[in-house]
Design a protein that fits this description.
2 helices; about 25% helix
Length: about 90
């Protein structure tokens, strides 16, 4: 299994929202520490067009049509509850 680069901002860390200075993703931080990475716009999809998700689905379909026998391309959107803007809002409003 491997990722196909070029579709999401995650392939280029310079496109992702910045982390606060001193952030260490390995170490747990206190709940009131706002050194988290926000979800990038469009969940990181590079395409900014209005039909970006249907276009992306078409590209995945095309990859599968052109794939070698036994090869399949799939898209998984994995998220973690509590990482969205509204979940962090109380940290800024207190």
């Amino acid at each position: 299994m491997q990722a196909v680069p070029g579709y999401f901002a995650h392939d280029d860390p310079s496109k992702l929202p910045l982390l606060a200075v001193g952030f260490n993703p390995i170490v747990s931080v206190p709940a009131d520490d706002v050194t988290y990475r926000q979800v990038p716009p469009r969940f990181g999809l590079n395409d900014e067009s209005n039909d970006r998700w249907s276009s992306f689905a078409s590209k995945i379909q095309k990859l599968n049509e052109d794939a070698a026998p036994g090869t399949a391309y799939k898209f998984f959107l994995l998220t973690r509850h509590g990482q969205g803007y509204r979940a962090q809002l109380p940290l800024f409003c207190s």
